[in-house]
Write a structure and sequence with these properties.
Blueprint lengths: L19 E3 L2 E4 L3 H11 L5 E4 L16 E2 L8 H11 L6 H21 L13 E2 L9 E2 L6 H15 L6 E4 L2 E8 L5 E9 L4 E8 L2 E4 L10 E2 L8 H9 L3 E2 L4 E8 L7 E2 L5 H5 L3 E3 L19 H15 L4 E4 L5 H7 L1 H9 L9 E10 L2 E3 L11 E3 L4 E2 L11 H22 L17 H4 L2 E2 L20 H11 L6 H16 L8 H22 L22 E7 L5 E7 L7
Parallel strand pairs: 1-10, 2-3, 2-11, 3-7, 11-20, 12-15, 19-21
Antiparallel strand pairs: 4-6, 5-6, 8-9, 9-10, 13-19, 13-23, 14-18, 16-17, 17-18, 22-24, 23-24
Length: about 575
């Protein structure tokens, strides 16, 4: 284990900031979490700075096909939504966080409607609710059939544009956050960021603030195949880790079971076939036409995603195949084109027609259930640093996210964060700090971590070489082989060795967005691999072939990881109370 654990630098190599701006709060990310936080904060504070890596509408939210889950039907209840979430989370959910989600969620969705989001309606003009994997009620609201995320982003961005002329909100597009700024007490007081101008690099600057909200999305690009957009390079998690925030449950990576298989050489963002297609009656078959999910789970093809993904991997291994098939032909051309227009159009672009063809599918990385550990107000262990959405770990998802809970989590906790920051600013609890360049006071959450290697380790501070952007494919290959959908001690050790070798071979690469992103992927991949090696069981999105027992009660713990001042990563395990519903 000692040889496998990573050593993480305090910050990335970057130029000294050449310009400075300031705001009460910096929000990093333009998905549902970031946009909602920024809009709500602006109602309470004087100045908000919203930073996004590309443009406002290219966050992960727009790719959400399935929908947003909430107990909106009179026959449904928050208690039932709570039950289904806890079951999907395999005993590791934070019940308090889930309770907040399911009770506050319906009102948050209604507020989206009031903001202008146009969800699909039934013949009576009521929200048309459907079902997805793991849900025992129809509680998924959709927009445009399979374009929910795009519609939510549109509504939020439209609202943002309505106040864009307000001098109290500044939007900086094409900006990559490099690292967090901290004062001499380790409180977060801003970010360094690099803005790319029209055809030229405008260089590194500093954005000072009294609080920072990370809403940077996931880490999907750490794998060779993912449903995540190209911007999902784990920047927020990596920056928080380097600054001393602790991460939780990063080993729980959800692989979506039905991603269109485009051939062995295909990589990058892959086309997702929404779980809602199975919710409407499509089913999985192998090459022989056998419906292999029958009998494996009471919900069969609508079992939670980890169950379905594992079943597909097992069947592919048994048959020596690299994909199975999704059969939606019986749903009919007219229904498919009306209910899933985007999916049908994309499949046809790639040479498949869901109305007449079996669709080849295989699991691909989809969602990170772990991330920057936060409390019920979205606070990290670093004062002034908040996290929301996929970059965070509220405890809502446990070991496996329930379908369509992610958009709801972004909404609910964005509101909680905005309210908490506003109250603390009003109370004078978040003063503007002065950034310092030295190692800060050790946060108590990190001080409690057990170092994995007591030997003499060189301080891993500034000046650590960046990975060249060309090494990204090597990081992805190592992670896919060793820390992918199915893992073992042997595969994880091999992945750790490969990543360590890449880090050791890094040269004096010129700082650039590509090298920063690739280095972020390395850091996130190293910590994820370590967490997966520590958890010696199979649970939720974490599958170990050498520990096939599922949900071992001895491992009803959360994995907490953080960077210590000497650069080593320490860990602890936090027990989770037994949940009677499981």
């Amino acid at each position: 284990m000692a040889d496998a654990h990573p050593r993480i630098p305090r910050r990335l190599v970057a130029a000294v900031p050449g310009w400075t701006t300031s705001a009460d709060v910096v929000v990093v990310g333009s998905g549902i979490a970031g946009l909602t936080t920024a809009l709500r904060l602006r109602q309470r504070v004087d100045r908000v700075l919203l930073v996004t890596k590309t443009v406002l509408n290219e966050g992960s939210t727009q790719w959400a096909q399935g929908g947003i889950a909430a107990a909106l039907d009179p026959g449904d209840s928050p208690a039932e939504h709570l039950h289904d979430t806890l079951v999907a989370g395999c005993g590791l959910c934070d019940v308090g966080a889930v309770t907040a989600l399911v009770h506050e969620g319906p009102e948050r969705v209604r507020e989206l409607v009031a903001l202008g989001a146009e969800f699909d309606l039934d013949a009576e003009g009521e929200l048309k609710l459907t079902r997805e994997g793991g849900h025992r009620r129809d509680r998924i609201a959709h927009a445009g059939g399979d374009a929910t995320g795009r519609e939510i982003s549109r509504a939020l961005i439209a609202a943002l544009h309505r106040v864009k002329d307000d001098p109290g909100i500044e939007v900086i597009e094409h900006a990559l956050v490099v690292d967090l700024l901290q004062d001499d007490r380790s409180r977060v007081c801003g970010v360094t960021l690099h803005v790319i101008g029209e055809g030229q690099m405008d260089g590194v600057g500093a954005a000072l603030s009294r609080a920072v909200v990370l809403a940077t999305g996931g880490l999907g690009q750490v794998y060779s195949a993912t449903t995540n957009p190209p911007v999902a390079t784990g920047d927020g998690m990596a920056a928080a880790l380097r600054a001393g925030a602790v991460l939780a449950d990063v080993e729980f990576v959800q692989f979506h079971p039905t991603v269109l298989w485009l051939g062995a050489g295909s990589s990058g963002q892959q086309p997702l076939i929404s779980e809602a297609v199975r919710g409407e009656g499509a089913f999985l078959v192998d090459r022989d036409g056998v419906r292999f999910m029958k009998g494996l789970h009471p919900l069969a093809d609508l079992a939670p995603r980890d169950v379905v993904s594992r079943a597909i991997v097992d069947r592919m291994r048994e048959l020596g195949e690299d994909h199975v098939f999704l059969d939606a032909r019986h749903l009919g051309r007219a229904f498919l084109e009306e209910r899933f227009p985007s999916i049908v159009a994309r499949c046809r672009e790639l040479g498949f027609d869901p109305a007449t063809d079996l669709l080849p599918v295989a699991p691909a990385q989809h969602y990170a259930s772990g991330g920057v550990r936060t409390d019920l107000h979205g606070r990290s262990c670093l004062d002034g640093l908040y996290a929301c959405g996929e970059v965070s770990c509220t405890g809502v998802h446990g070991a496996n996210r329930l379908a369509s809970n992610s958009l709801l989590e972004g909404l609910v906790f964005a509101h909680r964060i905005a309210d908490d920051i506003s109250a603390r600013l009003a109370a004078g609890e978040l003063p503007q700090g002065t950034p310092v360049a030295t190692e800060q006071t050790l946060p108590s959450a990190v001080a409690e971590l057990v170092p994995l290697d007591e030997g003499g380790v060189d301080r891993a501070g500034d000046g650590v070489a960046l990975l060249d952007g060309s090494a990204r494919v090597q990081v992805q290959a190592a992670m896919t082989r060793g820390s992918g959908a199915v893992r073992s001690a042997e595969s994880l050790a091999a992945a750790a060795e490969s990543l360590t070798a890449l880090a050791a071979a890094a040269t004096s690469t010129e700082p650039s967005p590509d090298s920063w992103e690739t280095t972020n992927l390395l850091h996130v991949g190293q910590v994820l691999t370590l967490a997966a090696a520590l958890r010696e069981e199979t649970r939720g999105g974490h599958v170990r072939t050498d520990y096939p027992e599922q949900v071992d009660p001895r491992w009803r713990v959360r994995t907490i990881l953080g960077r210590r001042p000497d650069g080593t990563v320490g860990h602890t395990f936090e027990p989770v109370a037994a949940q009677d519903l499981l």
